Amino acid sequence: MHTPHDIDHLERIRAVTADFGGYQGLYTCLLGLFGIWVAFTPLPPVGPWTGLFPIGALLLVGLFVAAQRHYRRRFGQVRPRWTTRRVLWLVLVPMGLLFGYLLLMSVTNVLGVQGGWVFGVFIAICLAVIGCSHPRTRWHYLVGAALLLALALAPLGALVPSGIHPFEWEYPVMVPLVAGGILVVNGLLDHRTLGRTLTSVSESETD
Amino acid sequence: MGTPFEDMAEIDRLVHEPSRLAITSALSSCESADFLFLQRITGLSKGNLSSHLSKLEKGGIVAISKNASGPPRTTIRLTPAGREVVAEHWERLTRLRDAARDWTASQE
Asked: Which helix (H) or strand (E) holds A106?
């Protein structure tokens, strides 16, 4: 007879299998690293390290291919099941988020309060949506969303000498840097969940 | 839907064995998975996993296919009947877990 603990483990197996691609956290890490890279080497024609941008981008593409090979060789392959829920998550939710972002931009523009914080709020909402997909195994996205939201909305301008909120466009580095850092941490935690669920293979295991 | 005792009596032994339950639970959440993934899920050796998969294949729960061209790769998926059996099994397990929780709560 399986105990509730066993069923919990089986439910984690089901969650990880259903969203196998999502739990391959090294990709999320690379996305976060891309954000950090964008923060430090803004796109042409601004920024002192602009020339380094293509090199970093190429390096990230190389790391992406390496991560892909690593996951295939270490964890195997899964063909996802296209359930209605999955289609909703992968097609309608991103479209809804994009529409929501455009709406938020328009509203804040009309109200004259637009700034880098809007993008911070948008990223926080995206993280919260990912966290809500499997709150038990992806709670760290909710923590990241709360942190980013707090940083975007808190009156941090009062704490810096210039009086400008660090998420305003005057500091273009901050939002991609913080969001990138959060994505790197969340990606590593996803990768850890995957590693814990998919155990190492024991050749001495008996029936 | 029956009493917890009826549910326990009706448990499908072919699916309920821990390794096979892990295999079928994973397969019920995807279209198909390869041999390596199932090995990782269960932590079984190749021989043991093959043995469990053979039993499930004989029972009509899973279908196993090997690609003819390219690198050798074994893909496993639940058959339509197997998917129903696994879904029913999970419903039964969930009912039993809830019944156990209610019973524990009533004892306190």
From this structure: helix A93-111
